[in-house]
Design goal:
With 460 residues, the chain is of the alpha+beta class. 42% of the residues lie in helices and 19% in strands. It contains 15 helices and 16 strands. Strand 9 and strand 10 form a beta hairpin. 24% of the residues are buried.
Length: 460
Amino acid sequence: MKFDIKEEDMIIKPYKSEGPIYIREQKGFFQRIRRNLGWLLMLTFIAIPWIQYNGQQAVLLDVATQKFTIFTLTLFPQDFIIVAMLFMVGAFALFFVTNWLGRVWCGYTCPQTIWMLMFSWVEQRVEGTRNQRIQLDKSAWGFTKWRKKLTKHSAWLVLSLLTATSFLTYFIPAKTLYLEMFTFEWSGITSFWVFLFALCTYGNAGFLREKMCTVACPYSRFQSVMFDKDTLVVTYDSARGENRGPRKRKADPKALNLGDCVDCNLCVEVCPAGIDIRNGLQYECINCGLCIDACDDTMNKFGYEKGLIKYASGEQMAGKKTNPFRLKLVGYGVLTVMLIVAMFAWVAQRTPIEASVLRDRGALYRVNYEGLVENPYTLTIINKTQQTLHYTIAISGLAEAKLTSPDTTLIQPGMMRRIPVTVTADGFDISNKVSKVKFIIFAEEDPSISITKDSYFYKN
């Protein structure tokens, strides 16, 4: 038997074309969720730096002074274990959600997706529908095309600048940043970062778009490790949809030997990643549900049952039940909760004072004119609270020793002070050449704010 196979039939064709993606605007249940959630997240992102607490910006990540303020909590470089814990919580929470609902983070809450679809919304308002945009790009350059392109890119640049400025308000006080912007007093470094972030936003959301999700973002590559047969993902019911093909609305699909899929291609046209979900699960799919809305809309028009494309697990498509208590999902959930508890426990037991004791770089000890042994030290104290406090220093562990230091030391919120002190003792009263001495530092306004640091006293 001889088969007549053409060479082009042996080439595996990609599920997604390499050309530009013209996203068709779609309405529906999942689109409303995504859009409303996107607006909520964007407004929250813009509003947080404007929240005031105790007369200052509630959330301020001041890199210049290495001080991060989050309402009542002030973090310094010594506290960055909580940042590591926060990233771990985010990672395991992402693993948990991915194993449960697939890439819903990408489809509904990822900043890249939100800004990409926002830029697409602007594009649709300026250049028209999907078909109109395709025809516009194919047309010769004229007044209308120049006007629409300039309007679109101008709007994109304004959005990018506002995004970058809002982002910088997390690192520079919002009032200061905007006041300097309106008075043209931005410093060179401020201007550099604002325009750099604006350029990145403009490039990512306006041009790279889905390529950031499918090529640059590593999440799309390792997501399959977190998927299992019970993960809910956007799925095409091929048993019901095939054979696919066009037909009239009143036609009987069974008489035509057709499934419910009318091959309208709307599921591809509304997809931000430009894939065809009917070809099966692909790593580019961000689980946004826009293809579900498009397909349900078509099913309504033809009088068919909804759900040809739906969120479903492999087990559900095989006619079985999804196991909500599978080991991987429970494990990710337990680890997430444990890390959250550990993070709050760390914050609860965190001492709002940091101190260190440094011995004098000169001689280990010296003998004063009274014949007493002196050991000089330098104490470094950091006030990690948001109040001005008076600190007192005391010693213990060394009998008959005397501490020479200021009666109290005033330290402003988030500031550090270096205080020279001296411990004096009679060498004949001390049997050991090296003795341990404890420095106790506490706030007069709140004695519970205290810390004890160990050091050594040398007599010869």
